[in-house]
Each structure stands twice: as C-alpha cells, then as structure tokens.
Design goal:
Layout lengths: L3 H17 L15 H6 L1 H7 L3 E13 L2 E7 L4 E7 L5 H10 L5 E10 L5 E12 L15 H6 L1 H7 L1 H23 L3 E2 L5 E2 L11 E4 L4 E5 L5 H9 L4 E9 L11 E10 L3 H20 L3 E4 L2 E4 L5 E4 H9 L8 H10 L9 H13 L6 E7 L14 E9 L2 E8 L4 H16 L10 H9 L4 E7 H7 L18
Parallel strand pairs: 3-5, 6-10, 14-15
Antiparallel strand pairs: 1-2, 1-4, 2-3, 4-5, 7-9, 8-9, 10-11, 11-18, 12-13, 15-16, 16-17, 17-18
Helix pairs in contact: 6-7, 7-9, 11-12, 13-14
C-alpha cells in the first residue's frame, strides 16, 4: 500500500500535468445549473426535458475502469451517481477523468439524466472540469477516521465521511432555532452583550484572562451570557430579553465540561422563579418534540420523560436523605469526613465548595426531570432570599444525574447584593478561584432600581444529554493541542 507521501506525490504530478495542459486546477467559480438535491427532487421532470445539466461536487468514490466508470458525487446537499461510458461520454471526457481526477477532487460534470439497468438515477457525463484538485486522499470509506485525536483535528473529514455526525450538527442547528423561536413567540427580544469584561459575573468559574492594549487593562472573557448586562436591560425598561452566545471557563474537561461553549440566558421582568419553572418546562418539552420527536430519553445510564412529572427537590432535604448530613448544622469537618467516606475528591476548604461537592455527589442518583430548589444562600450569591432567610429562590433542572440549566428570582436589593458580593470577595481573597467577582457598577444600577425579575441560563449541555454524547463530541471544532 502506498504511503501518504507517495499518494500526494502522484497527485502533484497530475496537478502539474493539468497546468501544462493549460487547465485551471482551482477556478473561482462553477458553472453548475442545479444542486444535486434539486436534481434528485425533480429527476423525472428534468429527464423528460432531455436537456443538458451541469452539476458539481466532490468525488466520494469511483469504481469501474476501461470504458465504464461509476462516480459518486456529493455537493453537501445530496449524492448523485455520474457515469462515464464510451462511446456515449466521448473520448475527451473519459481521458480527462482517467488521467487527472482522483477520489476527493471537486469536479464539474456536464451531461443528461438517465436511469441505469439496475434502476439507479444517474447523469451520463459528456464533459468533466476540475474545480479543486485534492492533494491528500480521503479516509477509507469503510472505516473513516478511527483515532480520536485525529477525528477532532481533522473534523472536516470526520463530518464528510460520517453522515450521522453531519445529521447531529444539523439537529443542533434546529435545537437553537427552536429555542430562539420559542422565546421570540413569547415577546423576548434577542440582545448582544459584551464577551470581554472588566469583572466576570453571573456564574462561579475561573475565567480566561487577557489584556486590552488600548486601555492598558487586564480583562476577562465572560463566563455567563451577559447576566449582569441583561439585568441592566431590565432596569432600562426592556421587559424580556435573551441572548445565545459563547461562554469561556478556564476549567477542567470532562464529558460534561469544555472551556468554550454556547449558552442561552433569558430574563423576564415582573416574574419570579415559579414563573421561570413553568416557562422552562414548556421550553424543554418544545425542544424535545420539535427537534427529537420524542419526550423520552436514555442517557448516562438514566431514563427520563420530559412529559412526565417534574418533581421539586429540596436541596438540603435531598442531601440529608442521601448522606445523613444536615448542611444547616453539620460542621465543615463533618462534611469532609462524609466526603472522604464516600470517596469523593474535593478541593478547597471553604464551606461553599464543600457543600457544593456534597450536592454533586447526590445529584448523580437523580434521573429527573426535576427542579432542585431552596439552595443555601452561600451557593446563590445573585438570588433572592426565601422567607426563611436561609435559602434562595433558585431552581435548577436535573436530568440524568446532572444540572441542565439554572435560574432564580433575581436579587434586586442593592444592600443585600453588596453584602453578597463582599462575601464572594472574601472567598476570592482566600484563594477560591471560582468565587464570583464583585461588580460595584452593577450595585449602582440596582440602586437606581430594577423590577422583580426571573433569569435562567442553559446551553448545549442539554443538547449533548438529549443525544447522549460527551459535550466535546457535539462541538464542530473542539480545541486540540497543536502538533508537536
């Protein structure tokens, strides 16, 4: 079997031969008259008209030799069989294809439509032109790209040779289209907020840091889809806003976590977390029905039905039920001992991280769908208090043992918010890199007044769960370390 270097050398010879022939190997435009999907859709009509058509595409496979050659053309819309047959195709077309064309090349063919003896809709080729000469071969059509890193590095080939992967990304596009339509139908307006910030807000995560040379200022890539900015828009008088955009978190990787991903956040004035739960349930059901055609899913070893009951689970009660730890009374040392007995690794020593780690152990046992509510204030620095003064009006969607969306009745009391920010600042100063940065200009906005508001954020983790794939697998181009 020839090596890649040998195959490339042979193709270079064909490229040079084309140039000597006076042919352009990389022309600017194709003269095609029809997309392949249009040909297939209107095949009978076009065949009856018996007119020449011009179609273009990549040669995905080529079989046969001598006087009869079968070619599979693919243009991104469909595949169509092209046939070169002597004497019908003519010596010139036959010789050009045989001498200069390889699998992987983009070509343009002229011909008329016919049906083969085996019943295959095809085009009888009378002329061939080169559109783009490929110097490297495509992966083996039967095995594709097998190496995981190579699949991600050469993602374009992975998508080209894997129809199921292409369908997945088309479905992901529909996922976002359905979300956008759902919110717009309910009078939300789409907005754009900064992706570079002086302080990160809206989540607890380690940010990416960069430098703004013009201002000579250290800045951060956002870790939420403009939460504090969209709340400013509530103060500005917009009743309902949403944004779909990229988020950056400089943290570890896992089947549920990557450093760059797409999220959606929406905010609605004169609403609380109960209103949010009703809206989110309707949104997730709409996604399930319109994108996937089902409400029942199996993923990560869990099965759940989004059309079934959405239980409300109390944060403190659920931890106690599963671990016998009462987070209202247990000491930090008692929580550490319990985590150690459960063989759960934990980082940091502040109480917020310990409680959060204990909860994450518990959530793995919940299939859902469920709403987790009544979070301790210490893990909810931007949410309103419940009447008990100890818990917050937060709700998280729990599916297949994971959190797939989070929202709350937004805190609009500037005095309370300042105190919460100061607490987060203490955690930051003590070395907690995931604690929330204080944004005192946001406090200024709250002092001018913000209406009661519910906000909610979720993202492509939901899509990854519904298709039962690691989140990296649903990224078209995940980050890959450069080759050595």
């Amino acid at each position: 079997m020839a090596s890649i270097e040998e195959l490339r050398a042979e193709r270079l010879k064909k490229l040079q031969a084309l140039e000597k022939l006076g042919k352009v190997a990389y022309p600017s435009v194709s003269r095609r008259t029809h997309e392949l999907s249009d040909v297939i859709r209107s095949f009978a009509k076009l065949q009856k008209e018996d007119t020449q058509i011009i179609v273009s595409g990549r040669v995905m496979s080529s079989r046969g030799q001598g006087a009869l050659i079968f070619i599979d053309l693919y243009d991104g819309t469909a595949k169509l069989q092209a046939v070169i047959k002597l004497p019908e195709s003519g010596e010139e077309a036959h010789a050009f294809y045989t001498d200069y064309v390889d699998v992987g090349d983009f070509i343009e063919v002229t011909g008329t439509l016919f049906i083969t003896k085996s019943g295959q809709e095809s085009v009888m080729v009378t002329n061939v032109e080169m559109l783009s000469k490929a110097l490297l071969p495509l992966p083996d059509k039967y095995h594709g790209l097998q190496d995981e890193e190579l699949r991600m590095r050469e993602r374009y080939l992975d998508i080209l040779t894997n129809p199921e992967l292409r369908e997945l990304f088309e479905k992901k596009t529909k996922f976002w289209d359905v979300i956008r339509a759902f919110l717009k139908e309910r009078k939300f307006i789409e907005v754009d907020t900064p992706t570079i910030e002086v302080t990160t807000g809206g989540a607890e995560a380690r940010p990416f840091t960069t430098h703004h040379h013009d201002f000579d200022l250290s800045v951060f890539m956002r870790i939420s889809v403009g939460e504090l900015w969209q709340k400013r828009l509530m103060a500005a008088g917009f009743p309902r806003t949403f944004e779909i955009g990229r988020v950056y978190r400089n943290e570890g990787s896992s089947p549920e976590h990557v450093q760059e991903f797409t999220n959606c956040e929406f905010y609605m004035a004169y609403a609380d977390y109960e209103d949010g739960m009703a809206l989110v349930k309707g949104l997730y059901l709409t996604i399930a029905n319109e994108v996937f055609g089902t409400t029942t899913f199996t993923t990560r070893g869990h099965t759940f039905n989004l059309a079934g009951e959405w239980k409300k689970i109390d944060y403190t009660d659920e931890i106690f039920r599963q671990t016998a730890i009462d987070i209202r009374k247990s000491t930090d040392d008692e929580i550490k001992e319990k985590l150690q007995s459960l063989k759960v690794k934990y980082e940091g020593v502040n109480r917020e991280r310990l409680i959060d780690t204990l909860w994450k152990y518990c959530r793995k046992n919940i299939s859902g769908p469920a709403f987790l509510i009544n979070h301790p204030l210490i893990v909810a620095p931007l949410a309103k208090k419940n009447p008990d003064g100890e818990t917050a009006q937060v709700f998280q969607v729990i599916l297949a043992g994971s959190e797939i969306g989070k929202g709350y009745s937004e805190l609009n009391d500037p005095i309370d918010q300042r105190a919460r920010f100061e607490k987060q600042q203490e955690l930051l100063s003590a070395g907690d890199e995931e604690a929330m940065m204080a944004d005192y200009e946001f406090i200024d906005m709250l002092e001018h007044g913000m209406p009661p508001t519910c906000g909610f954020g979720f993202g492509e983790r939901l899509f990854a769960f519904l298709v039962d794939k690691p989140i990296r697998e649903v990224h078209m181009f995940p980050l890959i370390k450069p080759k050595n």
